[in-house]
Amino acid sequence: MRFILFIALFACVIGRAQAQQLDSTEIKLQQLKTGVIFMRENLDKSHRQFRTGTTLFLAGAGVAVISAFVPPEELVRTGGTKAKTYDFRTGVAIVGAVVNLVGAIFMVDSHKYIGRAGRWKFNGSGIAMEF
């Protein structure tokens, strides 16, 4: 009788240990899923920002190139003397250069999300993210 009771108790202990092992595996699997979601979100943010930067960069370059084909304005007489005014072509070239620069900054800045995507690791109680 004692032997049967001992076997039953032993089976319960072994069953409980296996259930805890399964729970631990499920927790680690959930942590891994969370980490993958975190990586995907950061990589998606990086891609969107890089695409926006590329669009701005190309638009600015296009506007700057088009400004070369705009005919310059003529010299204007002001008070009997000739004075050159800022023409439309110069303004368009400056706007194109500024938009080009902003696009380049967006493109370079988008890489911060790639670095953030890899800054997570498992520890004993969950996923630790470094900022």
What does this structure look like?
This protein is mainly alpha-helical. It has a domain at 61-117. It is 73% helix and 9% strand. The protein is built from three helices and four strands. A two-stranded antiparallel sheet has the order 1-2. Strands 3-4 form a two-stranded antiparallel sheet. Helix 1 (2-69) packs antiparallel against helix 2 (88-109). It is rod-shaped. The mean pLDDT is 75.
Detail the topology: elements first, then pairings.
Blueprint: H1 2-69, E1 76-78, E2 81-83, H2 88-109, H3 112-117, E3 120-122, E4 127-129
Antiparallel strand pairs: 1-2, 3-4
Helix pairs in contact: 1-2
Distance between the termini: 61 Å
User: Biggest sheet, strands in spatial order?
Assistant: 1-2
| Spans where pLDDT lies below 50 across 5 or more residues | none
Count of helical regions: 3
Listing every helix as H and every strand as E from the N terminus to the C terminus, the arrangement reads HEEHHEE
Over all CA atoms, what is the radius of gyration?
Answer: 33 Å
- Total E-strand runs: 4
Measured by DSSP, the beta-strand proportion falls in: 5-15%
Give the overall pLDDT as a whole number.
Answer: 75
Estimated helix fraction: over 70%
Q: The biggest beta sheet, please?
A: 2 strands, antiparallel
Question: Multimeric state of these chains?
Answer: single chain
Task: Tell the overall outline.
Answer: rod-shaped
Query: Structural class given helices, strands, pairing?
Result: mainly alpha
